[in-house]
Amino acid sequence: MKYIKKDIKNEPQDLKKYRETTPNASYSGFPSKENLRLTLLKEQGYLCAYCMKQISAEINNYYKPKIEIEHYKSQENFPKEDLNYKNMLGVCNGVSNTIEHCDKSRKYIKNHKTHSLELKRLNPTIKRSSEELITYDLNGKVLSKSNNADVENDINDVLNLNNKYLIDSRNDALDKAKEDFRKENPKKRNKPWTVKMFDDEIEKYKLKDKAGKYKSYCQFIIWHFTLQKNRSKYN
Question: Most exposed among 110, 130, 194, 230, judged by the fewest C-beta atoms under 10 Å?
């Protein structure tokens, strides 16, 4: 999960105008969702707010954009947050190889009605409640940095971030990153990789590219290169 700086200055003016001037305004009645999706994409660097998979306004095989608008505080449980821009996130479509995750796994059916699970600790719009609570392991799993039960609940039971598809995708992205690093920094006899080489690589994954996009699963890749940098032989 990557921290998202929600800036009210980024709020689309048509959303603000609709909320302030329309009687009984509601998210379902807001007509300009395409513009809202584009705003969220730019704000988040084209990454899903939960799994860090790359998202876009392109149309998928189901004729839907490869981004969905998520309410961090659910519309069901927090109806007053329905049109609050700071409560809106861009997320992936949430179904990969029939596996539900991210916003889709927050939903459950009880008594023939769909209900929403609320996140207990993780919040991508608060740095200490996103990046600083999460770590990873060498197999590509997302973990609570302090073995906190609420964080583990959010990772596994609410967002399902450790399903096989996402673990494999994180590892594929890391393999590509390691391959690129080796090409840029070929090993030479008696000349090991240096801390600066790793710092330069880490910096690349912290920044957006020229199109305003972060690399998919960038926080996992940053974690890996930081781990490598801190190994004693590089210091």
Answer: 110
Q: Is 63 helix (H, G, I), strand (E, B) or coil?
A: coil
Are 75 and 82 in contact by the 8 Å Cβ rule? The answer is: yes
Total residues found in the chain within this entry: 235
| Structure token pair of residue 159 | 């967002």
The SS3 of residue 51 is: coil
For residue 58, pLDDT over 80 is answered with: yes
Q: Using the predicted structure, report yes or no on whether residue 235 has a pLDDT greater than 70.
A: no
Q: Number of helices (H) and strands (E) in the chain: give both, helices first.
A: 6, 8
Q: What is the rounded distance in angstroms from the CA atom of residue 60 to the CA atom of residue 37? A: 15
Could you give the CA distance from residue 232 to residue 199 in angstroms, rounded to a whole number? 15
What pTM, to 2 d.p., does this model score?
0.93
Mean pLDDT of 134-158: 96
The helix/strand/coil state of 199 is helix
Q: Identify whether the C-beta of residue 221 lies closer than 8 Å to the C-beta of residue 174.
A: yes
- CA terminus-to-terminus distance, the chain: 28
Reported as a single tens digit per residue, the pLDDT across 71-96 is 999 999 999 999 999 999 999 999 98
Mean pLDDT for the chain?
Answer: 93
**Residue 137 contacts by C-beta under 8 Å, 6 or more apart in sequence?**
143
Q: What does the alpha-carbon distance between residue 218 and residue 84 come to, in Å, rounded to a whole number?
A: 28
